[in-house]
Amino acid sequence: MCLLARAGHGTRHDAGPCLWRGFAVRPQPSRRHPWRPACSSFSGEVKVSKITTIEASARAKAGKGAARATRRAGLVPGVVYGGKQEATLIALDPRIVIKGIQTSGWRSRVYDIKVEGGKTERALVRDVQLHPVKDMPIHIDFLRLSAGSRVHVEVAVHFVGEEKSPGIKRGGMLNVVRHTVDVEVAAENIPEFFTVDLSKLDINDNVRWDDVQGTEGATPVSHEANFVVASIAAPVVEAAPAEEADAS
């Protein structure tokens, strides 16, 4: 199975191709950062992304040759860049990378990268390159987060209240238009996920961006105004087979 398959949407009808699928993993305990507010229980407010701590080795050299040497050593070469600082070259255990990208909402997950013999870098995963045949990670890019900056990030959409939806009870089907939404948001206030409440939706009802919870401070990128996130589609009724004409 491809590593790059979406997690957590197997029971719903999806409007687009499935991109990421993987087993759920338990993140490491979050740490409070001086400029990051504490996560609140969800009540329509923004639930700030949890922080996952990972360990990495430092790499001395950049370039293709050095990257190949890192892979021969059984590690995944990577880089942490941005924040008006010099890039930090790192190497990660491939199991850390695989576990990370198989976790729902990984694109908005904040990492504290503890570099061996160096400082801790706070960052987002920006890109993961996979081997074209083996489908294993061969390089990973992290974007360094700086206090006061705004970042472009892809945030997962979670759906709740499906069992209470009048439309679904009557045979309607949840049609997910956007599993994730690209937004621009403050680096210290990256949402862990957005939430859509389906409990009052009937057949042919739509959920639009303005209906999504936990979006305060987030500005959608490259989307039309108040776009549709999901809808409840009418059940498909199969036509009764036509009676065969009598033989003449």
Automatic annotation (TrEMBL):
The keyword Ligase does not apply. Residues 54-142 form the Large ribosomal subunit protein bL25 L25 domain. Residues 151-235 form the Large ribosomal subunit protein bL25 beta domain. Pfam families: Ribosomal_L25p, Ribosomal_TL5_C. GO terms for cellular component: cytosolic large ribosomal subunit. HAMAP family: Ribosomal_bL25_CTC (MF_01334). Belongs to the bacterial ribosomal protein bL25 family. CTC subfamily. Part of the 50S ribosomal subunit; part of the 5S rRNA/L5/L18/L25 subcomplex. Contacts the 5S rRNA. Binds to the 5S rRNA independently of L5 and L18. This is Large ribosomal subunit protein bL25. It comes from Acetobacter ghanensis. The lineage of its organism: Bacteria, Pseudomonadati, Pseudomonadota, Alphaproteobacteria, Acetobacterales.
